[in-house]
Amino acid sequence: MESLPHCETLLLEKQGPTLFVTINRPDVRNAMSLQMVAELSTVFSEIESDLQIRAVVVRGSGGHFCAGGDIKDMAGARSQKSAEGEADPFYRLNRAFGQMIQQVNESSKVVIAITEGAVMGGGFGLACVSDVALAGPTSKFGMPETSLGVIPAQIAPFVVERIGLTQARRLALLGLRINADEACRLGIVHQAAESENELEEMLTQVLDRIRHCAPVATAETKALLHRVGHEAMSGLLDSAAEKFAEAIRGSEGAEGTMAFMQKRPPAWAESNE
User: Fold this and answer.
1) Do the strands 177-179 and 191-192 form a parallel or antiparallel pair, or are they unpaired?
2) Which of 57, 134, 148, 253 is 20 to 30 Å from 51 by CA-CA measure?
């Protein structure tokens, strides 16, 4: 990717093999508008085939991750009338968000969510499709939809995948709000920091570990993990064995083996470009 796409709701910055995506609507606690959904989708589409980008860090500006859907967009959809043969505007708005978080979920990149302040509704869903989620001390997580008379339509399946049906039921049906420590216990986030400095140190350690892992092997591993539970085990293991054979014969497998024998870091661990 020669240049980053222009975005109005996101701040984009590439540092070495990492793309930092900052949700930038602090006046509304980074509530997710249709424009933001479209811009996030565009960013993830454009980086998918960019082998130089290995990780994406998603965070929010102004002390909040994302407070959920934008009420203005909801009001706008309410005022729209569906033309004959067109989908309901509420359906279009909701489904566009679901397509975006599915895209983030299935991205070949390692997606890291840095959660602070409000992590609600759609923001909660976005955190649940990250590969690594880190929480700051101010984080508050929740699925408040039922308390607003609506349903967590697009995020609920991803929450169930993240923490299991039992805990998802409790959070969704009671509209609970929980802190970072409980989110960590439930498996929504992997680590909870006690300070902003500790949060940044955690992120640095995660990015360092990503640098030590081969990019193609990492992408193939993520794809394999997503297939578990959706395919018959025997066929899945047959396919995985084929992928293993390709990997060990490929350039990364050769370099990784040689680096191990020569007791040196592999080439991808030394790359800062």
Assistant:
1) unpaired
2) 134
Domain count, the chain: 2
- The predicted model scores a pTM of 0.94
13 pLDDT higher than 50: yes
Which single residue is written with the structure tokens 């578990």? 228
User: Using an 8 Å Cβ cutoff, are 114 and 59 in contact?
Assistant: yes
User: Do 142 and 245 fall within a single domain?
Assistant: no
What DSSP line would sit under 160-179, residue for residue?
A: HHHH-HHHHHHHHHHT-EEE
Closest CA to 209 of 136, 133, 130, 110: 110
Spatial separation of the C-alpha atoms in residues 102 and 237, rounded to whole Å: 24
Which of 210, 239, 254 finishes a domain?
210
Residue 239: which CATH number? 1.10.12.10
In the block, residue with structure tokens 């566009």: 96
pLDDT band at 273 (very low <50, low <70, confident <90, very high): very low
Q: Show the domain range for 225.
A: 214-270
Question: CA 13 to CA 11: how far, in whole Å?
Answer: 7
The Cβ-side half-sphere exposure at 172, using a 13 Å CA radius, reads 21
